Amino acid sequence: MMYFDDRLYLIAGAALITIGLYALLAHRHFLRRILALNVMGSGVFMVLITYSARTAGSIPDPVPHAMVITGIVVSICATGLALVLAECVQALTGRTELSDERETSEHTGARPDTSDEQHQDQSP
Amino acid sequence: MSHAGSFASMILAPLAAATLAFIFPRLGRWLAFGTAGAVSIAFARLTRLLLDGGVQVHRVGGWGAPLGIDLRADGLAVFMLLITTAIGAAVMLYALRYFNARRSPAEGHQERYFWPLFLLLWSALNALLLSTDIFNLYVTLELLGFSAVLLIALDGRRAALTAALRYLFVSLSASLLYLLGVAIVYTRCATVDLTLLATRAQPGFPLTIAIALMTGGLLVKSALIPGHFWLPPAHANAPAPVSALLSALVVKGSFYIMLRLWFEAFPGLITPAAGNLLGGLGAAAVIWGALNALFQKRLKLLVAYSTVAQLGYLFLLFPLAAGHEGRFTAWSGGLVFLASHACAKAAMFLSAGNVVRARGGRDEIAHLEGMSSLQPISTFAFGLAGLSLIGLPPSGGFAGKWLLLRAGLAAGQGWWVAVILIGSLLAAAYVARVLVHGFTRAPVPGPARPNSPLMEWTALALAILAAGMGFLSVWLTDLLQVGAPAILIPPAGGAP
Amino acid sequence: MTPQGLLLVGILLSSFVPGVMIFFLKERSHGLRTGLNLLGAVVKLVLVGVLVVNVYQGRSFSLTLEFLPGLPFALGADANSLLFVTLSAFLWLWTTLYAIGYLEDSAHRSRFFGFFSLCVTATIGVALSANLVTFLMFYELLTVSTLPLVIHRGTREAMQGGIRYLAYTLTGGAILLLAVVWIQDLLGPVAFQQRGVLDAVVDSHRTELQLLFLLFMLGIGVKAALVPLHGWLPRAMVAPAPVSALLHAVAVVKAGAFGIVRIVYDVYGVESAARLDVLQPLAILASVTIIYGSIRALFQDELKKRLAFSTVSQVSYIVLGTAILGPVATIGGLVHLIHQGIMKITLFFGAGNYAETLGIHRVSEMNGVGRRMPWTTAAFTIGALGMIGVPPVAGYISKWYLQKGAVLAGEEWVALVLGASSLLNAAYFLPILYRAWFLSPPERWPAEHHFGRWETNWMLLVPPLVTAALVVLAGVLAESPFSPLAWAKLIAAQEYGP
Fold it and tell me: Considering the entire predicted model, what is its pTM?
């Protein structure tokens, strides 16, 4: 029975990763992408934790646990960072999507270097 | 400084300084100076230990792998640390004058965050280079990515923030793929330590998937075609010192991890086909990046696409170092090329920054007239750096290309030769384009604001280093031999 | 580092250090800049003199530094190097003087003279290289240091000329790099050695060596202006006259010809090259270039362009001499290296004088110029007569040896080519001389400048007179033991000797 439970968690983890990856590529809204990344991350963590239960013996392997905890911390930082950046971008561009991949200064008409005072001052 | 102390200082000194710089912004510059000094001393000590005693290992907390975290310094790590320290110091000097709080409150604001982020990036990079297990590499890679993202977004302009956010999305998804790979590796091998993996890894479907995932994530982070799209806007829209750091160092971090994975952890599992695939993508990058650079209208975008092209050369290392002969030649060639590119590209971005700054922020190439008379030192630095990118002797670029060519001929893989040579000519084309515009007579006099000499001279110093690196190539290859991956040394009877 | 090595490095530094220093001088520091320039040139000439004397007394000079793994950076002074080094050092002095005079009111002189000095450093480096890698290094440095000189004026035309120059020379450089890597893959590090280094492998790797030879010729042929790789040269005439003089007589084109000499004699060895059947095609190519260059020169009205095509043609004499088996032809080719240098530089000095003093750029504007500027025109005449091959001027000696060598080697058709070339040379030089001396001058010159009592600035007048005198002396005193001819004989003896 244990074995069957493990498989379920693994499949769930793989599914989460796939869903997350798909959403990341298919959706363009910032929040959806950030959510997608979180879902993907959760999937990876789930895979890790599942394997920690597979060791023979009574105690699960603690190393994957340590990795997952570290991963969660990293993920929180990443999410926070992404959210703040997304908000700044939305405030500056008024849009909630990244524009076309090849961003050149023709659109913004902005000077590329930082010597001019009239540029907005947004601290990330 | 003790053995453990050297390792610790390289990582902790910048980290502590970063925290302090964040809390006490006024001390930013001093903390950076102090850190540079501490790191340099630690690095010197580490190098001495390496040259005298071979590969150095430090077991953090005394635990040891597979449970604890190990830090290891072999020839490759020290080589990369050398580049990092040199370029970090130069960029630091440049940034001293680049951000001038007296000029505007906006710049003071940027400087306030530049120093902590710069120090954090430095710490992350040092930690990455010294790590010896794949999970620690993940953590340090993420740290590196975060500090890079924030540095790109430093000046708060629309283009910069958008590029930073795009880079963040790319970076996070790539890292997650890498982490998934790490997870699978752990399940098969019960360890994440590089040296232990070499003994425990068995060929099989799961590990192949794991390596594919890890490689895929790292390739995107290293901006190999087709994962290169995020790099030009990110590197072009960042402030000049940040662009230098990104192109010279940050993007090499993930490449370094790839080297460790392919040559140390899983050498027996990599097929020649995989190597050829990477080489092919690298070749495509060399040509495609250079062609794009040739047709750019903006100077910093040209330099950024040049990075894409030059990174392609690095990936030629993979098929060449897997050939039946000339492996170490290919390895050292690729790495010498990496070092030279780091110095040259940093010099290029710094001098481009000087030129653009003096023109009040305009960087259209078509309007660069008079550059050679108004900013002669920066123009010269740009040209000298270009020499290295083209691969003219005695630059490090020449030394690297020479070694790669030799490896190609020795391994019987001559087709890469054409790529290397065509790439050189294309590089010459886009460098010449900038210089030709710069030498044209200017109808209007005077720069918008003159540059501080320190800014010009750091750019020139890096360019001279790149242009003369050929003479250092013997010393560098000797350094790389210490603790070089065993796969590179052929069985008895073969030629290195 | 031994004292011998130090001397070699000193010769290189004597132009490198002033060059770097000049970059930092302000535009208005005329005196200091002129002083540095001339000091460097004189020091170099003195050091080269010391070198020559010592080598004659039997001492050897070499220097080796680690460069790439397994490939040292090596300088050395053998007979071939001395030939080229002396030519370069001597002519550089006079070209420097000329350039100072020519650019007296121009902008960006510090930049110009800085790169000027770097260019000469690279040329001397090419001359003193003792192995292929060092040669390649200085060869590419030559390209890089001459580009800013070509585009110095900053006009659109200058830019286009510069881009074309760069495109040709860098492509050649890439091909040369391939050839050097390949041959070293085959043979290990290749140092220049009399009679070449190929004895062991000539028969076993025939096709490979033939292909390599082709690559070498393509790579070096660009700078040596072999047809069809010569396209950059006429356009590069957009550079100021001292640059053209330098490029054609001293630096770039000569380095290319010198490179071919090195490959054929000191890498392949002329015997091995003959065994590989590569000399005939080279001779044919050189002959085509000789005729083609002369024909194109006929149709040029712009004086510098006419001289440019003349260079294309004349430099191939050197290649031709190299491509014919036999010491006599070798002597002819080698001695022409020197003779063509001094003759061509005289002609370019003259052209520069006409442009600077009278605003003349075209042959059609040169009527009666001999009356207005007799000394310059006299020098020009001597150079032109040398080109045609009129005895006893220097050019005659080289042509005589080439023809005799061709006949001795059984290649009579070459003698025909040389004869035709002399006729063509006469056809495009004699009309100029006729115009200059025998037609009456126009009412006003296009853009006249007066220089007091002399016909032109003394710094523009002395160099061509010196070089013209040399042209005469080299011909008249050819049999003396210190002439270029004696030297060429020495080299040929070493190449073919027992």
Answer: 0.89
